[in-house]
Amino acid sequence: MRTVAVVVLNWNGLADTLALLPTLERCRLPEGWQLSILVVDNGSTDGSVEKIRAGFPAVQVLALGENRRFAGGNNAGLARALEQGADAVMLLNNDTEADPALLERLLLALEQDPGAGAAAPLIYFAPPSDRIWYAGGHCVVALGLAAHRGLRTRDLGQYRAVEETGYLTGCCLLARREAWEKVGPLDERYHIYAEDADWSLRARAAGYRLLFVPTARLWHRVSAKTGAASPWKIYQRLRANLLLFSRHARGLARITWLPAFAAQQAVLAGWLAAQGRWAAAAAVPKALVDAMVGKPAAVVRL
């Protein structure tokens, strides 16, 4: 019997995590697979550890006692799952709701494509919704571009076939054991954001195909903690992407990525300003300047 481990990161998100866990327990699995759920608690102060253990005794809870952020917390869960012999490990946001076919479809897609190392589902905005949040991703280092495909469009049946994609979102990323071991864990040098794109680029460089599986579905309550397009989120995402492209640019891309990226950010700042969102617009040049002078992203408060 093979095991798929689902690592759910929790930080003061008890209500979200309690809502997610029953949907995971209802997930179907291919024949010969069993499910292990591991909640990693990043030092919550809302009683999460005790209440999750009491409400879901079959779920493992790894209490870290401190906030190791997205990469550190997930890496702790990943290491525990691999130590326990998991054959595949999924990283899953706690503010999500799983369709019963989620795990079954992702695992079958990987089984049917030996060259694929990891896969992600079709992800919608919070239920009830057919509005798409993720339908595969574009990640073109030479253009300084990392973006979700299909963002905010309605699902009209345009995505139905399993296909290779540029990057997988860390909201829901399932990878084979061998891929985790060869590519390694998430890079904890990222303060927040871009850890998934970084891992995806490393997986592609290691020779793995990344799959988008639209028959696997998930709903995501996006930005419940940071707010949609908040100044802090815009700032941190920009800083993370600067780090991402500077690390992965090779050859001619070392020349092209920065001007292309700067042009995209100028358009973003202008669009935000045109909407009267001045604080969000101001976060763009601040992030660029802070990166130039080497100010750590972790100390910034907006």
UniProtKB/TrEMBL annotation:
It comes from the Bacteria. The keyword Transferase applies. Signal peptide: none annotated. Keywords: Glycosyltransferase, Transferase. The keyword Metal-binding does not apply. One of its GO terms (molecular function) is glycosyltransferase activity. This is Glycosyltransferase family 2 protein. Residues 24-183 form the Glycosyltransferase 2-like domain. It holds the Pfam family Glycos_transf_2. Belongs to the glycosyltransferase 2 family.
